[in-house]
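testing teh design pipeline on a random one, pls ignore if ur not involved
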């Protein structure tokens, strides 16, 4: 799921207010969750009337869809205004198409079923870097789904089936295949895989919004993620 950066959206805002609405919707849903966030919250964030938001979306479901489009760099797909969707099913379908279109961790997927290379540490470093880059590039949509999916089972199902479960299955399979944990005890392999993955995920996804980590640059975060991940399998 390609997660666009903020800069392109800002560059287009002079001609279409929908980009401001999309960004405000993303911020509101990411912080308040799906159930509690209302169109009035987005209007208040922008300092406009609720009625003005209805120029761009015709429902809360459409507003959430617009927030997802913002993370994908595809707000232009919401034209012409107002955006109308059948419900969350349209957003779920969009997410499933995006997930199916992209290979999110090709190196890990290949390693999970392939023979061991001569340099195991180098392989682990490459996989750690791949995972960091995949999460970092999609941090906004992951944060949005992390916050909202548990409140909407259909969203959780799409995210879990398309991303979470396959990722952990590949990672655990790689851990076992390389002998980092015994095959007879999958719980050990799962714990090791999840621990290493959580370190990478925090540095790639949560660090940018954590004020206590403001001094850590992207380059430093990536370097640390690769080091921590590969060290887990030393």
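output:
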């Amino acid at each position: 799921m390609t997660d666009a950066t903020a800069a392109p959206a800002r560059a287009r805002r002079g001609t279409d207010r929908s980009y401001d609405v999309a960004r405000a919707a993303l911020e509101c849903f990411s912080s308040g969750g799906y159930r509690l966030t209302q169109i009035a919250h987005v209007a208040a964030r922008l300092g406009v009337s609720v009625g003005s938001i209805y120029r761009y979306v015709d429902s809360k479901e459409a507003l959430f869809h617009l927030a997802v489009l913002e993370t994908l760099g595809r707000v232009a797909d919401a034209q012409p205004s107002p955006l109308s969707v059948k419900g969350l099913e349209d957003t779920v379908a969009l997410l499933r198409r995006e997930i199916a279109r992209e290979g999110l961790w090709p190196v890990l997927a290949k390693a999970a079923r392939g023979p061991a290379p001569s340099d195991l540490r180098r392989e682990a470093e490459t996989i750690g870097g791949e995972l960091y880059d995949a999460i970092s590039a999609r941090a906004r949509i992951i944060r949005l789904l992390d916050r909202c999916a548990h409140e909407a089972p259909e969203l959780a199902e799409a995210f879990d089936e398309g991303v979470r479960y396959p990722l952990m299955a590949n990672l655990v399979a790689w851990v076992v295949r390389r002998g980092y944990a015994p095959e007879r005890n999958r719980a050990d392999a799962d714990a090791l895989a999840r621990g290493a993955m959580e370190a990478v995920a925090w540095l790639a996804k949560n660090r940018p919004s954590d004020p206590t980590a403001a001094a850590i640059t992207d380059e430093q975060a990536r370097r640390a993620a690769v080091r921590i991940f590969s060290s887990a399998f030393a």
